[in-house]
Design brief:
alpha/beta; 4 helices; 8 strands; three-stranded mixed sheet; three-stranded antiparallel sheet; Arc Repressor Mutant, subunit A; binds zinc ion
């Protein structure tokens, strides 16, 4: 699998694709897109309580890069909160430390450390509706039921 030095490494993918505000009619044209490196920095700093140096190590980027991503993410979250905007989590210059698949039937998530493996059926329910979470989150999926 080709690797670029500019890619940030992610440990996990979000459990949801985004958020819709209560009281507001959903309008995807006004949606804010939080990319995956912004999500990861928020997760590591505001959820895991790491400091920016640790985040830079984990994501294999410089400390000023972490600061820049963090500021951008906070601005987007603040805008979504105050203006009642839908936001989606998608895209970004990232690579995953593992490969993630999810069953469309039962939502079971499959984590594979070997990037070559590709599950044919869900180990939990036997369904063959297996989707690549990299497609949903990184490349921008419009095909699977959950993203449509
Ligand atoms: Zn399943
Ligand atoms: Zn999808």
């Amino acid at each position: 699998m080709p690797r670029s030095k500019n890619l940030r490494t992610l440990q996990e993918l979000p459990i949801v694709k985004g958020f819709r505000p209560l009281w507001m009619r959903t309008n995807y044209r006004q949606a804010i897109t939080l990319n995956l490196e912004e999500y990861e920095v928020i997760r590591l700093i505001d959820y895991e309580n790491l400091i920016q140096e640790q985040v830079a190590d984990l994501m294999k980027v410089s400390r000023p890069t972490v600061t820049r991503i963090y500021e951008s993410a906070r601005r987007k979250l603040g805008t979504a909160l105050v203006e009642g905007r839908t936001f989606v989590i998608e895209g970004g210059d990232v690579q995953m430390s593992n490969t993630y698949y999810q069953c469309e039937e039962c939502q079971h998530r499959i984590v594979l450390e070997n990037h070559e493996d590709n599950p044919r059926v869900c180990p939990a329910c036997g369904s063959d509706r297996i989707i690549s979470l990299a497609d949903c989150f990184i490349r921008g999926c419009r095909r699977c039921r959950r993203c449509n």
